DNA sequence: AAAATAGTGTCTATCAGACAATATTTT
DNA sequence: AAAATATTGTCTGATAGACACTATTTT
């Protein structure tokens, strides 16, 4: 079969919660097109490489996180004929949720990679159609917090209920009642399970530590205000 | 830029509800690979053609439905290196929901197109990775019925509450209480609006006709048993 | 009249949201 | 002691699900 010339890329919306805010990893483009503009990390799919493999490779290159335990899911594919001035490039977008990294961003492209608060990314500043991809990725994350235990993907292996609440508040941009949240989370079957210890890292009375449970869907779902 | 040889296709999961059952449009492949096997309709993306344009073109070719009002949404992209024996072909899958067609399937490829009950499609019978694509498409439809007014996409412009309930029952495979369903649907803001008339096409007491409302998300959502 | 479907009303257990009260830490 | 956070409990209004009952058609 003969194929039209076509490039296939995987781009990543890598989200984390730092300082109580939802942040996305952006890179400053060093080369044309869109030189000097912010862009989502990504790269071309290699021959014989699966799409998710490409995404995980790029994730590791940009963050140093190579664990299979990092949450990564496909969001959508963007293929408008004119979305890349270099020619026809179709991009498969992935959403990655990572905990607040103890180590700073590391890896080969690290020099140009920065965490940027999602609320402060402005529409015209991103290369290609990356603003649209970012918006779709963020919306996916917001929606999935409701009915999946995905919020735990932003947390370290052991976390407190209030840290988990901080994730919801940052992603949704809404304050939640600590008391109702606590009750809801601990009563939702298999959402979180007690890890045994306590911590005072959040100040005040020691909080119980939890780790994520086995649930894949939350019954009942968490509700946005 | 030079690109690796690569094909880009759009494949369609076209669902409808006929005779109270969820059905999918499949075609019998006339040529290799997988000659004689059932497959999802689809085709290659043309140069300068947007992905959704390809999907709508294929939809029109297979069903004769060219209206922009047909619900069509992207589901996921499949790109395992060995998924097509002809070479590297990446497929963007779309989900289309169509009403029970008054006219039989028509169009250029119609000769080989048939409605098949989803519950009776068996895993090994489909070409390529189409069983996986079908499963993902059906799961998407099932999930979206809960929190979106998507069920109306299976209905004609004017429908009764019990016809809408029939859609839910067919897609979810669960019987629903007609009385609670009626109350729930009519009380959910902007889900359906009265069209004015009534019909006795379902037998019994005349039922009010409705058409779809302006809601894009259902508050509260419909709940699966 | 009998059967079929449409639609309304009622009851109960559960849940979301508001918020009081108590517990245990650091400053 | 004061401030901060954690956790439990209580109250109220809304809702889901079960199901009795009434309404309007066809057979």
From TrEMBL, chains A, B:
Molecular function terms from GO: hydrolase activity
CDD domains the UniProt entry points to: NUDIX_NadM_like
Domain of life, per lineage: Bacteria
PROSITE patterns for the chain: NUDIX (PS51462), NUDIX_BOX (PS00893)
Domain Nudix hydrolase: from-to ranges: 5-140
Pfam families from the UniProt entry: NUDIX (PF00293), WHD_NrtR (PF21906)
Record flagged with keyword Manganese: no
UniProt keywords, alphabetically: Hydrolase
Coiled coil (UniProt feature): none
InterPro entries in the record: Nudix_hydrolase, NUDIX_hydrolase-like_dom_sf, NUDIX_hydrolase_CS, NUDIX_hydrolase_dom, WH-like_DNA-bd_sf, WH_DNA-bd_sf, WHD_NrtR
The keyword Hydrolase belongs to this UniProt entry's keyword annotation: yes
Family, as annotated: Belongs to the Nudix hydrolase family.
Name of this protein: 8-oxo-dGTP diphosphatase
